[in-house]
Each structure stands twice: as structure tokens, then as C-alpha cells.
Amino acid sequence: MESPAELPLLEVEDLRTSFVTPDGTVPAVDGVTFAISRGRTLALVGESGSGKSVTAYSLLRLIQPPGRILGGKILLRSARAGAIDLGQLDERSELLYRVRGGLISMIFQEPMTALSPVHAVGPQIAEAILLHQHTSRSEARRRTVEMLARVGLDAPDRRFDQYPHELSGGMRQRVVIAMALVCRPELLIADEPTTALDVTLQAQILGLIRTLQREIGCSVLLITHDFGVVAQMADDVAVMHHGRIVERGPVRAVLQHPQHPYTRSLLEALPSRRARVA
Ligand SMILES: Nc1ncnc2c1ncn2[C@@H]1O[C@H](COP(=O)(O)OP(=O)(O)O)[C@@H](O)[C@H]1O
Ligand SMILES: [Mg+2]
Question: What is the pTM of this model?
């Protein structure tokens, strides 16, 4: 028998999420199945509108009406909290709050989704620590400052009291990463974490996520439309198209021998990158 450590951290099976609009029902996620092993990075790649974000939001049960999860299994095998079927949890259950930000954290595409503009950044991170761990305010502050330094902010003691608008876009994204990882989640979901940044910053931020992932030992679900990012970051890749996964496999295999026409068309859109990877 396999020991729990060898079973995937996350198993998603036949996930279906739809939006009911005046024009009809949109099956945004239409029977998606994938698994992520411990310490691995799975890239979910596809064009805009293919259902990547809706998949991520579904995992954390953050789908708002008129959206609804119609079915599927979302099994998290947490080392800290045991096996949890996220699909079955009550909206208001304690465990769901423990999962969000504690066991699974998310970096949203737009940093200001995660940061409140009316609070200084340090207290927002400290608050996340206090929410998920039994610790004192002074200890939460100490760990926040340490984390701000860890993600590459200079003068972290002073940054603690700054507001998001006082920071550059790159620094804000570093703060978001600090907030996402300070509670050492078992899974990090990063939804296009560098799309809003220029190319030089993109590489730095992706490198930072990779380094911290190794330190913490967490798994990553990386959402991107960019196969260059996939090649740099991921172990495995799942290609999403119209709410379905059309191809999956180890990154190198998919990049070198794409089987599905949609995967090929995505790769052909990036000729220089493909050449570099292959
Ligand atoms: N709030 C919403 N209302 C209606 N339809 C939505 C909503 N959010 C997403 N969708 C539908 O779900 C599809 C997938 O969206 P999304 O997961 O955000 O795509 P992406 O792959 O770019 O992240 C979209 O094409 C859209 O049709
Ligand atoms: Mg998206």
C-alpha cells in the first residue's frame, strides 16, 4: 500500500463550474481532472477565457453567484489537517477558513486584490499570521519583518508601516508573495503572478517564488498563458482549452512532442521561446 506521503497532495476530479447568465449557462470549467504531488509545480496553461482562474477559485471555494460548482472532487491530503474534500465543505466551516491562506494560499493576478489600500502592508501580513497561528502580536511583527526581508524588500522595518500606494508594482507583488507564504502553505496557487509586471521583474519574481517554494517545500499550481513561464517554472503542465484539459504531462515531453493541435498552436505563437526550450 502507498503511504500517504506518496499520494498526491491535491487531486481534482471531474470539476465542473458554470455561470448562469441571461444568455444561457457558461460551462467555464467542464470536467477538469488533475493532480499535484508534494513539492511539485503544475502549470495550468491556456489562453484568456479558457477557465484557468475559475478552476483556481473553485479549489478555494471562492466562486460567487451567478457561478456555481456543479460537481467534482477536490481532495487535499494535508500533512497538517488530514484529508479534506474541499468540494464538500460548508461555506462557513472553520476548516475552510483554515484552508484558505493557511494550507492553501493564492497569489492573485492583480496585487491589489490581496492588499487593502487603506492599511499599511506589514499589519496586513501580521494579521494573516495571527489568523492562522497562535502567536503574539510582537512575534507576528517580527516574523513579518523577517518575511519582508526574505522577499527582497530593503529596510523591511520601515516598509512594514508603508501603504501599498507607496510601493512600486514589483514591491507590491513581493509583499503579496510574503503574505501568501508567511504561513508556510502546503499548496501555493499563483494566478498569472507576473502578468502585470515588465519582463525583467517577471524573471526576478518567478525566481523568488521558486526559491521560496524550495525552502518551504510546498507544491505550486502556476497559472499562466505563457509557455516561457511554464518552461522556467514547472515540472508538469496541463493545457486548458474551453474549460477542459486537452493535454498534460511532464513539461519537457509536452514542449518537445506536443500531441494536441491546440498545444501546438500555443507553442507556435512563441517560436523563439520554443527554440530555446527544445
Ligand atoms: N463572473 C462571471 N460571469 C459569467 N461568466 C464568467 C464569470 N467569470 C468567468 N466567466 C466565464 O468563464 C470563462 C473562464 O474564465 P476564466 O477562468 O477567468 O479564464 P482565464 O483562463 O482567462 O483565467 C470565461 O470565458 C467566462 O465566459
Ligand atoms: Mg485568469
Answer: 0.94
